[in-house]
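Fig. S4 source data, part A: sequence.
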Amino acid sequence: MAMSTRPPRNYPESEDKTFDERVVYVNRVARVVKGGRRFRFQALVIIGDHKGQVGIGVSKGADVAAAVTKATGVAKKTLVRLSLHRNTLTHEVEGKVGGARILILPAAPGTGLIAGGVVRTVLEVAGIENALSKSIGSTNRINTAYATLAALQSMVPSSKWITRIPRPEAKPKAKVVK
């Protein structure tokens, strides 16, 4: 008797969420060996669901397709959930990784994304529609991507905002008789 590799009928099918996968950067890297140079490829992939989930993956492979596939797997494993407020950030945030420093500010509805390069891609796949950003320091794409993710993770959700500080009850003052 041969065993079936199919799951039992009552086993629920695994849901495969659809993510927007963007290959941002492919780099050819070399390793010097006795006979010359051995080339490999490094890929930076950003994935997101446009609903507040985003992940970044960097990986190397023998060819571009292998590097992109491995980087996509890394990105799926490192997905993070962001707290958005009306399709923008909850407040201004800053992230630093290596020499890259990213400043991201919330914007009014209708402003759109005013960001460039990797920062724009990360914000787009995360589902942020209105934001301003400034990249300060390094232009390294990998560090910029991770700095953007660090900034977005440092946001405090709007449900945890302190909108007013309760005052202690004032005691009635005693009248001074003169």
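Fig. S4 source data, part B ends here. Strands lie at 20-33, 36-48, 53-61, 80-81, 93-97, 100-106, 113-114, 131-137.
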